[in-house]
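Appendix B, Record 12. Input sequence as logged:
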Amino acid sequence: MTFSEAPLLVRQVILVLLTAQVAVGLALLTMQIFEAYSVLRLLQTAFTALALYVTFQELLRMHLGDAEWDCPLWAVIVVQALLLMFEAMILTSGRRWANKHITPHSIREGLRVIPAGYACMEADGDVLLRNRQMRDLTERALGARGQSPAAFLRLMEGSCELPGVHILLREDRRLLMELEDGSAWDLQRKEFEVDGRTLTELRACDITEENRMRRELQEKQEVLKRVNRRLRETNQAITQMTVEKELLRAKRRIHDDLGRSIYALMRAVEDPEGTDPAPVLEDWRQNVRLIARGGADRQMTSVEESLRTAKLLGVACEIEGALPEEPGLQEVIASAIAVHAANVCAHAKGDLARIRCEEREEDWVLTLTNNGKAPEREITEGGGLRNLRALAEAAGGSMTIRSLPAYELQLVLRKGNKEEQAYEG
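Logged structural output:
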């Protein structure tokens, strides 16, 4: 059976397939011409495309009945299959060759897929090559389509300014900029020569994330500076408070010791027969040494020492309940006993000081009374009571004085910090 004797549908299918093969052949020929893979492959592609076109022309004439000769159907199918095989071989070998060699097409594809922007320009600013990323960046920065990336070179040189572009860093061949949409870019230029022509290469890298991290770091550094400044101020305040606390302690100690010695001396003068002068003289010697040395080497007063002081003044101390053993509170209680005993001796003219201690959930309550005469009016805090109040408040406590109808001194002292105790445990 010849081609012209074949059914109409068979002939139409063969012609349609052959038309597609001719189109593919022409496309392969165009690609070979522009890419210039090799002369041999170009000749093979041209021969295949020409053979496809001639075959299509002859079969079309047979189909229309204008041909002077006819060809067997099987020969047509074999020739068409061979030409299709040649096309497949050319396409496969071309791809294999392109994967192993650098071609203009591969360069264009590489520039298209890289995330960085790239442009190559003449010395006068004419753009020779530009990828899609550089085109998009130019439109976003300049606000219009078709703009040349040469504007970035002028911006890098400082000869112009662009609205909506914030310069982060400008150097001779480098520019860091931030756009209105928040994106940041690093542009670098490089000159090179090709065939005696000086070309300029411009690369743009997206540094939006790095710029965001840099800003966060700057904000954290500012916060750190403020924290350091507050820490320095706090350290200065703590140093000042420590100095004032030590001065207060020295003043309180001198005041209490001198007051105690004066009251003991007055008692010895009033009752020389019932008083042993040796402790009184020794106490005065210690006070003189304390004043001469500035009181810096004296330790804080203990409860036992305050009780001995009260006994020296002729005041017996009656303690009800267990006293707290925390060192900070022991100092306040010892000072309170010494001040109270001196006031009982000097002002109330009594000989018994009562100290009642009550433990509560978060604090201790000390109530100090005496058997002397009641005050005739509201008591004004002098040096001893004023120093005792400052000492109690520094320890986180409080002090209350009741004058009428009877004298009563009450101290509320907070227990140790529970959070510190938990960490220590």
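The chain has twelve helices and eleven strands.
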